Amino acid sequence: MKQPIICITGGHLTPALAVIDEIKRQKLLWKLVFIGRSHAFEGGGSPAHEERLISAFGIPFHALFTGRQGPSMWKFPIGFFQSFFLLASYRPKAVLSFGGYIALPVAIAAWILRIPIITHEQTEDLGLANAIIARLARRVLLAREIGIPMRNALFHPPGQPLSFPIDSKLPLIYITGGSTGAQSLNAFVYPNVGELIGHNAVIHQVGTPGLGEALRVKEALTKTMRSRYIVVSYLDIGDLSWVYHNAVLLIGRAGANTVAEVSALGLPALFIPLPWAAGNEQSHNAARLEKSGTAVVVNQHALTPASFLTHVFELMQHLDTHRYAAKRVALAYPRSAASKIVDEVARCIHP
Q1: Which of 85, 124, 155, 185 is the most buried (most CB within 10 A)?
Q2: Count of domains for the chain
Q3: Are residues 161 and 264 in the same domain?
């Protein structure tokens, strides 16, 4: 019997990787193909991690040239014809979408070719691309109902980080702006690095665009203090798992994946939601954990470098209270989203 082909696409890589992990874990005889982006931002800039991570699974990766609504809309027809050609060539049994502008031309091409579409939606308020995809899809799986897929390795950390040395005797603070970094967030961090590492170690994930500036901040520290400030552009799953299991506090944005991860792993957080996120999505994500007592949420527009440091130290003073609440949230957080998505794909290709 010929192996069924499944096409995976979308702008949210982390849940896609979790589902690929689950397909491999179940040893399903499916051939996978991935349609994604080659750069972190549609206008170019730093390379995205999709191709490297997907190719590590031995999965064919195809970079799409397309754009979202607005000035980049002229790219959309190119992305559509690319998608149509790829799907017509592979003839997958289903397209599994993780949303965003990168998935829209793929979904439209699949709909025209009568290929079933299953989409997983992370956000409460659908953007234009996801709203269209949802109308075309055979199944729409909502994060608020099934959760967000997380890689199994996240719950099984290595004994030591794989790509950097660190003094693990100190309390560890993890600062992250997501896979691409967050330069506006880093502007609050850099003036305070000396204070933050006074009694803590800090792992600061800055994205490729912010790496040079972060290394200059590190270089300005005394030689004895530099080992307490670890700068990384990106954390692969093993190192990320180690950090989550050894950190006492996360500081960062409140994207759906980050919120899901700290929820599932029971880590207190200081969230500074991205102010211009669509539908104020990140503020909504963070508010749920703030109500549970796990997190403190701060409006970026009201923040200064001095008040940022005050919030960090206040949270550290009451860390035990936040940690207790975080552990309660973790016990109740669903971890089966990846297997549920795989089950839906299986129903679609084997009705």
Answers
A1: 185
A2: 2
A3: yes
Alpha-helical (H) ranges within the chain are 13-25, 50-56, 76-90, 104-112, 128-136, 143-146, 183-189, 193-196, 211-219, 237-246, 256-265, 281-292, 305-317, 319-332, 337-349
pLDDT digits (tens, 9 = 90+) for 290-329: 999 999 999 999 999 999 999 999 999 999 999 999 999 9
137-185 pLDDT tens trace:
999 999 989 999 999 999 999 998 888 888 668 999 999 987 666 788 9
**Domain of 143, in residue numbers:** 5-150+335-349
- Judge if 73 and 209 occupy the same domain: no
For residue 291, what is the DSSP state?
H
Three-state SS at 314? helix
Residues 193, 171 share a domain: yes
Exposure string for 323-348, b = 16+ CB within 10 A, e = fewer: bebbeebbeebebebbbbbbebbbeb
Q: What is the mean pLDDT of residues 97-103?
A: 92
Report the candidate in 345, 333, 238 with the shortest Cα–Cα distance to residue 16.
345
Question: Do the Cβ atoms of 73 and 67 come closer than 8 Å?
Answer: yes
DSSP assignment of 90-138 equals H--SEEEE--STTTHHHHHHHHHTT--EEEEE--SS--HHHHHHHHH-S
